[in-house]
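Minutes, project check-in

Agenda point 3 was the complex the collaborators sent over. CS summarized: two entities, 793 residues total, and the question is how they sit relative to each other. Sequences were read into the notes so everyone works from the same version.
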Amino acid sequence: MTEIITNILMAGVGGQGIIMASNILSEALLAAGYDVKKSEVHGMAQRGGSVVSHVRFGEKVYSPLIRKGDVDILYCLELLESLRYTDYLKKDSVIILNKYRLNPPSVSLGVQTYPEEIPELVRENFPKTVILDGVEMARGVGNPKTVSTVILGHLSRYIDIPVTVWSDVMKERLPKKIFDVNLKAFDAGRSVERVA
Amino acid sequence: MAETNRKQLLSGNEAIARGAYESGVLFASAYPGTPSTEILENLISYDGIYCEWSPNEKVALEVGVGACYAGARTLVAMKHVGVNVAADPLFTLSYTGIRGGLVLITADDPELHSSQNEQDNRNYAKFAKVPMLEPSDSQEAKDYVALALDISERFDTPVFLRSTTRISHSQSAVSLAEPDRTTHADKVSLVKDPERLVMLPANARKRHVVVEERMERLREFADDFSENVIEMINTDVGIITAGIAYQYAKEIFPNASYLKLGMVYPLPEKLIREFAGKVKKLLVVEELDPFIEEQVRGMGIEVSGKDSIPILGELNPDIVASSLDGYVFTEQVPIEKPELPPRPPNMCPGCPHRGVFYALSKKKAFVTGDIGCYTLAFLPPLKAIDTCLCMGASIGHAVGIDKVMGEEGRGKVAAVIGDSTFFHSGITPLMDAAYNKSAATICILDNRTTAMTGAQENPGTGKTLMGRDTGRVDIPALAKSLGINRVCTVDPYDMKGTMDVVTEELDADEISVIISEAPCVLLRGAKREEWDVLTVDHSKCTGCKACIMLGCPAIGWDSEGENSKGRKGRAVIDEMLCIGCTMCRQLCKFDAIVKAP
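CS then shared the predicted structure for the full assembly.
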């Protein structure tokens, strides 16, 4: 264990499973012996709005919030949402982006347009970008609702925690009947090669 | 016990609940409110603690005071604005003192993540002359509950424990302790003590003397309090801080010296003077008001703080860093971004509120609003909320507006209020509306839950927080008993029926109450059997946008797609989001909305 703090920002839209994924991540980090802090906002923010969770770990963590330009890994479940947090990124941030579009209300109403070519824009600016079709991968393991776990599985490639710790935490946190499919989803994401 | 060995990752709210369990709390009451709600939701998982959702925060504190007068250790929890509601009993409770320890949790919401203001409730500690502790992480959140109860009993006073959104909703590692569920359980008994508990002027005058003496003793205690700690590192800069601001400051200035305050009222004057004397420059890092700073300056000590640290909103490490000279930022990547459409929270697909708001929007009514999910009807395209001030205010607003507008306002003034908000503080203004002969239209949106905070029980749901079956308030009967003649119920999914009733009642020249009866779609059993996921038949969609005006997240606008008129622009339904409530189908004049294949 080093004294360095690792910062993971997890973003998406309310209902996509950000909070569950960040819970599993934080529990796994704690079980692996790290000091962990995690912060997110509940309440009003969950009615289909943007959701973001900060996870920080290392030997001793003070602030639960990540500083701008200091994110090591961005975990993002929706394309547009990745662009909201670019202030938090640095050139060599690892970006794990789920290739999925969910229109915000102003786009649905035809008032604003959804930006095109987000994957290209992200990849151009941040060389360590992985873009996954999480919905397709989740469908592949039998449940499209396991997207957040697929992407979490890939995130696990960048964190030094034994794979058994991940599965133990998922077993503890997830309802019994969805544990197996989530484990498969996790493995599907984990089997994708690291970008760096 | 195995569970006490391993550190657990707990949110501040989970930790507060655990702290209450460990320290022998027997009674807990609250009204749900972000960011405080999860405290009682977690507390019910422990045995031996009576927990209740009270109809509002004033009642929550009053029942809590009853329990503590009978000798029970008691926890009462609320969000910051809830303390405004509970202020009446609070200020005099400071005079009577307690029997069992009483800790009052105030969960403040700097940045207004889910609130109507960002008041700094540390001011209440000073105003009500009640000591206040403030934890800076989950471990302290748990431990400070026990400390608060000890202080409460030692000094015969209620004690505030102040959390903020970042404490309540952040998780960090907590070491658990063995619970003590017996030591404090023996004290429950009825003890008459009228000179202390009956606040007639003659008694209260004497108690005010006691309050001032107690504050003096608490000031002395603060100097020796284990959680007011000096951390000397160097003598250049000394930072006085508390709560979450401590964590941000430590992150940014690891080499500064600190006076970390676990008790933010009253302040430890001797300790502050000692610390100030050791450092060249003294700084207070605190969120919101200059609460500590002004008191330190009042001691005649030179100090800075709000001259550089914002008074608005939440702090974070970047704000703390940028407020002070000479700090270098991590380099950010310059990136040319397209304009990002915002993604605000919205009423859910199939939300029953939408039916009533659609009617009010069509009628172009001036709609006085209230606190709940339905406040989101303020957003386009419905734009059907014109005011939102505090819990229960919608009805009073409508009465006042109707009175000054007179005939000119007829048919135009409506209030909307949810069931839980109505029980919280809508009944007395409805009584006012009836008593003083208002002609406003009051819409009670009864979705049988406290939805905004995540579906808590309330006096209309038939269940208590602890899961017991109980009676349900009969809202129509209640309205009639207040002397209101025009009381009707609507099914908000019946668009025409709802529109007809809204039209008729708005035009009535006496007070009327419309109760929209349909459960929150997120509740189990809310989806009706006849509902099927819908889609748009593009051979029939003319692109008229009638369905779009509902503002349903499942309905979108495809500006490139060809409509039945051969022009560009047609409606689309996201079948992943649609639950089939049929409101849009009822609005479509061209039968273009059909069951999805």
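Noted in discussion: Chain B touches chain A through 60 residues (CB under 8 Å).
Follow-up: revisit at the next meeting once the mutant set is ready.
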